[in-house]
Design a protein that fits this description.
This protein is of the alpha/beta class. It has three domains: 4-192, HUPs (Rossmann fold, 3-Layer(aba) Sandwich); 214-292, Orthogonal Bundle (Tyrosyl-Transfer RNA Synthetase); 334-429, PH-domain like (Roll), CATH 2.30.29. The chain contains 17 helices and nine strands. The chain has a four-stranded antiparallel sheet, with helices on one face. Helix 10 crosses helix 12 (271-298) and helix 15 (384-397) packs across helix 17 (415-429). Bound molecules: tryptophan.
Length: 430
């Protein structure tokens, strides 16, 4: 019955390439179609500010990435697809988490440490060119994840440490303020291969070896012509092992097609023909999406409208949750000030009876545990006084009063938990 929440962010700092498509866009779109899954996918534009100080590039990348995901089949009706900077609760939560995160933990974050190590090796000040944004990056990412209480976070290996940090933040916060956050888990797709680029190294913007996802068919052909191969002549058998061309083909083809291609390698297919084959296979998958991509790129207002719709959905979760968190940490309306001080506040978060009237006109009570889960449900009473009497009996007598009250109990969720809760109430009453 309970849904599993997946969440992932895409930093808006570049143009999507085939590696992004195979490694992240395609599996995420597929995952979002599974039943019982609630997906949150967002454009991490606050994150982009850490690396990029060219406003036009951020804007352009945001549009390209959004259009790519939509063209690849992401259904904004089915998933919550939004832009991070449309959710003001995220920077607010970032601050809450900043205050429960040890500075020492952040010192150990890979991205920050890599910069420090580089500076140290160069003999300069360790923090040269390191912004506080880079240092704080894991906390912003923690807020992205915890804001929606995501269970699973699909990411690459390089991001696993950040998910572990988000778990730590969830625990530190819960420890201080009660159970508010779910501890997230990294979801690494073992079956998704990293795609090699034109030069055979991992396809990555930093190696300048990428093939843009929405290159035109002609551009695609030109880029594929640049894929590094060995010098074997037509007719000579070729190795599939270590061939970037073969690996890219495999990422798009079925196992049967891949086996047939391997056969052709063994039979000495020319590199030119193999490249022709790869071009056709990629084009078969991407060409149908290109028209939608072009349309969205030419109508950015449509993308904008979809993202704003997504933000409304995201904020329907984030706004009330943030209100609860503000309450939890003590950022509260003074008008609602309780005069009882800390002891009373602690009691508010513990086991409690709730009395209410149903539409049948009868009076009921229930007992809730500290997290608000139902422990006991009463039968209906003709008047509130009778209900109060039974509650009073349970409060004063604890678990030992249960047998005498049996006739007024409609249901019990967990007998052991109920006993424990009643005992704690009795201890408080005395
Ligand atoms: N930092 C991630 C990356 O560089 C992007 C990201 C930002 C993210 N916030 C996130 C990923 C939250 C998963 C969950 O790839």
């Amino acid at each position: 019955m309970s849904t599993v929440r997946f969440l992932t962010g895409i930093t808006t700092s570049g143009t999507p390439h085939l590696g992004n498509y195979v490694g992240s866009i395609r599996p995420a779109v597929q995952a979002s179609l599974r039943p019982g899954v609630e997906s949150y996918y967002f454009l991490a534009d606050y994150h982009a500010l850490i690396k990029i100080d060219e406003p036009a590039r951020i804007q352009r990348s945001t549009l390209e990435i959004a259009a790519s995901w939509l063209a690849a089949g992401l259904d904004p009706e089915r998933v919550v697809f939004y832009r991070q900077s449309d959710i003001p609760e995220i920077p607010e939560l970032t601050w809450f988490l900043t205050c429960v995160t040890g500075k020492g933990i952040l010192n150990r974050a890979h991205a920050y440490k890599a910069s420090v190590d580089k500076n140290t090796a160069a003999g300069t000040d360790p923090d040269t060119d390191v912004s506080a944004g880079l240092f704080m990056y894991p906390v912003l990412m923690g807020a992205d994840i915890l804001m929606f209480n995501a269970h699973h976070v699909p990411v690459g290996r390089d991001q696993v440490q950040h998910i572990e940090m988000a778990r730590d933040m969830a625990h530190s916060f819960n420890h201080r303020y009660g159970e508010h956050f779910v501890a997230p888990q990294a979801a690494i797709e073992e079956s998704v291969a990293t795609l090699p680029g034109l030069d055979g190294r991992k396809m990555s913007k930093s190696y300048d070896n990428t093939i843009p996802l929405f290159a035109s068919s002609a551009q695609l052909q030109k880029l594929i012509a640049n894929i590094k191969t060995d010098s074997r002549a037509p007719g000579e058998p070729k190795d599939t092992e270590g061939s970037a061309l073969f690996q890219i083909y495999q990422a798009f083809a079925s196992p049967q097609e891949t086996a047939a291609f391997a056969q052709e390698f063994a039979q000495g297919i020319s590199w030119a023909a193999a490249k022709e084959r790869l071009h056709a296979r990629i084009d078969q998958e991407i060409a149908p999406m290109r028209a939608r991509y072009q349309h969205l790129m030419e109508h950015p207002q449509e993308v904008e409208a979809l993202l704003l719709q997504g933000a409304i959905k995201a904020r329907a979760v984030a706004t009330p949750f943030m209100a609860r968190l503000r309450q939890a940490v003590g950022l509260r309306s003074l008008a609602a000030q309780s005069t009882g001080g800390p002891a009373k506040a602690a009691k508010a978060a513990s086991v409690a009876f709730k009395q209410y009237r149903e539409s049948d006109g009868q009076f009921y009570f229930k007992l809730l545990d500290a997290k608000g889960a139902l422990l006991l449900q009463s039968t209906g009473f003709a008047n509130p006084k009778e209900a109060a009497q039974v509650m009073g009996q349970l409060k004063a007598g604890g678990a030992s009063a249960l047998p005498a009250c049996q006739a007024f109990i409609a249901s019990v969720a967990d007998a052991a938990a109920l006993d424990e809760a009643l005992e704690s109430l009795r201890a408080q009453a005395n």
